[in-house]
Design a protein that fits this description.
- The complex is a heterodimer of chains A (about 130) and B (about 450).
- With about 130 residues, chain A is α+β, with helices and mostly antiparallel strands.
- Helices cover about 55% and strands about 25% of the residues of chain A.
- In chain A, helix 1 crosses helix 3 and helix 2 crosses helix 3.
- Chain A starts with a helix and ends in a 7-residue tail after the last strand.
- Chain B is built from 17 helices and 11 strands.
- Chain B is elongated.
- Chains A and B meet through helix 2 and helix 3 of A and helix 16 and helix 17 of B.
């Protein structure tokens, strides 16, 4: 995580604790809530050990946007990991399917998959 | 800055021998030229004789106004006598002596770079403060047209003569990390729209909208974005000038080899239909509607510099080259932001080349095979290839970061080495499948597709 992201969260939301940062990177977000006066206020929200945590950020949209960008940057690695895991799963699934399609064709040629490597089928000894 | 108007009196004297520009060529005949646009010096010999009576030859030479032939003969700088060119004086303050003279080929004094000098001009500076964007063009006539329309413009020539520090200085002049969706747009008050009888902002009898005489901008001023014109205003052509493409290609080379990011330079490509719209508006012969649409559509960054080169020169079809380009974008300063325009543009190019050079041939091969099982296998292989190539830049970049970083933090762990190992494993399996397909085809012998 870039140092400036941590600096922003420390300066604007007072978040410096490592566990809090880990929790924010998992499920943190900035909410914009409307007050009865009509003023929009921003809050940084996350859950730590099942408990809600909130930091009031004020009504300045610039600060709201900065913290939102910082949270997005903090969440980026986790999000990328999730996306990659989804793609890995899809690739594995497609590989399994293509293997299933090719297996009969290989068998007809006296070959078989050993994992994904092709080997000659063992022929039983002729008595 | 105090040294800028050093040759001011010489330049002012030179302008006395150049006639003010009277009109633009069609279809821009209705735009009154800015009072600061001059045509060439028609009688260079007489002008030089007069100048030599007022100033010594060495001063004229230093100012770049006079050149000396190998045989020792003096002559006026060719840029000032070019009938196809123009002369535009640049001033620090309204009414002050010019600190530089802009011509089609050069900026006088010759030590001045046209981009840096243009940014110091009071007219450009005040308009750039207002619009936060400056158009870069390579033609002095187009420069004069933008200027006469009251739009911030810079003459983008002489890039190749800049040293590395000069290029870095240019990089630092412009705003970092522009965004195509940037909502920053301050509409100008255009008195011409209030009443049809009032004169447009640049009426024939008046100078273009005069910027308020202001001293140097305060340090807190936001830096403008330089917009390379991805189209031609002068010719009303949707295609950009080849010279601007060359400039973009050179800046990209600098970016790649010297790692100067030029994050504040973008391309204005107003889109389909814009030029037709402008032609239609120009038919009214009034500056107001033209200026209005230019501010709305042409003074906004829409593309990265790569766009100009991708649309022009040799289109990159080399998969490793586009992957290298994407990894460069990730590794650059904007790498922390995967949504930065540079990364997005490189990603788009990478996906396009992956699709055309790798995926589509696989699909075509599968569709043309008369064995449905082989056809289905190729379709699956195409899916696998797509997924793997979509993941490749991210995985490689993560691995690079891991290798670069001495200390690995906890929050980077999920996408570190195990991820790379998985990716390698899957790539290996996909390669095996391709080998199987090749082997089956070999056994089957050559067949005709359907």
């Amino acid at each position: 995580v870039a140092a400036n992201v941590l600096e922003i969260l420390a300066a604007t939301a007072g978040v410096v604790d490592r566990d809090d940062l880990t929790a924010i990177s998992a499920r943190g977000f900035v909410s914009a809530e409307k007050r009865p006066s009509g003023l929009l206020t921003y809050k940084l929200r996350w859950r730590r050990n099942g408990r809600q945590c909130v930091r009031y950020l004020g009504s300045d949209p610039t600060i709201g946007a900065r913290v939102k960008a910082a949270v997005a940057a903090l969440r980026q690695p986790m999000q990328t990991a999730r996306e990659l895991n989804t793609d890995f799963a899809a690739t594995r699934r497609a590989l399994r399917e293509v293997k299933a399609i090719l297996s009969p064709l290989l068998a007809a040629n006296g070959l078989a998959f050993h994992s994904y490597t092709v080997r000659r089928k063992a022929t039983p000894p002729v008595d | 800055m105090s040294k800028l108007p050093r040759y001011g009196t010489i330049f002012q004297a030179v302008l006395q021998y150049a006639a003010p520009m009277t009109a633009f060529a069609a279809p821009w005949g209705f735009v009154p030229p800015s009072v600061d646009c001059y045509t060439h010096i028609a009688d260079p010999a007489a002008a030089l004789r007069q100048l030599l009576t007022q100033y010594d030859a060495a001063s004229l030479e230093r100012a770049g106004v006079m050149t000396r032939e190998p045989d020792g003969q003096c002559r006026l700088a060719p840029a000032l006598c070019d009938p196809s060119g123009l002369i535009v004086p640049l001033r620090v303050r309204i009414g002050s002596d010019p600190f530089a003279l802009l011509t089609q080929v050069d900026c006088l004094p010759t030590r001045q770079n046209p981009i840096r000098a243009g940014a110091l001009d009071c007219f450009t500076r005040s308009l750039a403060r207002e619009h936060r964007h400056i158009v870069a063009t390579t033609s002095i006539r187009e420069y004069a047209l933008y200027r006469s329309l009251g739009l911030p413009v810079i003459l983008c020539i002489g890039l190749r003569s800049l040293s590395e520090s000069g290029l870095r200085a240019i990089d630092s002049m412009f705003q970092k990390d522009w965004s195509p969706e940037e909502p920053e747009y301050i509409p100008m008050a255009t008195p011409a729209r209030k009443s049809p009888t009032t004169a447009p902002p640049t009426s024939p009898l008046t100078s273009p909208p005069s910027p308020a005489p202001a001293p140097a901008p305060p340090p807190s001023d936001p830096r403008p974005i330089l917009l390379l014109a991805g189209w031609s205003l002068l010719d009303l052509d949707a295609n950009p000038d080849p010279a601007i493409r060359e400039a973009a290609a050179y800046l990209l080379q600098v970016k790649r080899h010297l790692k100067i990011q030029f994050a504040g330079i973008a391309v204005a490509e107003p889109g389909e239909g814009f030029v037709d719209n402008l032609k239609f508006r120009a038919n009214f012969g009034s500056v107001g509607p033209v200026r209005e649409t230019l501010i709305k559509h042409a003074l906004r960054p829409q593309r990265c510099m790569e766009y100009l080169c991708g649309a022009t020169g040799p289109k990159i079809n080399d998969h490793p080259a586009v992957l290298a380009n994407l990894l460069d974008a990730y590794a650059s300063g904007s790498g922390n932001d995967p949504y930065s325009p540079t990364v997005q543009e490189a990603l788009k190019q990478y996906e396009e080349v992956t699709r055309t050079t790798l995926i589509e041939p696989l699909l075509r091969k599968g569709l043309s095979d008369d064995d449905p099982a082989i056809g289905a296998a190729y379709a699956h292989v195409a899916t696998i290839t797509t997924l793997l190539h979509n993941m490749a830049p991210t995985v490689i970049d993560q691995q690079r970061r891991r290798l670069n970083s001495a200390r690995l933090r906890d929050d980077e762990a999920p996408i570190s080495e195990p991820c790379y190992r998985q990716f390698k494993g899957l790539t290996g399996q996909a390669t095996e499948i391709l080998a199987v397909l090749a082997r089956l085809e070999l056994k089957r012998g050559p067949r005709r597709g359907r």
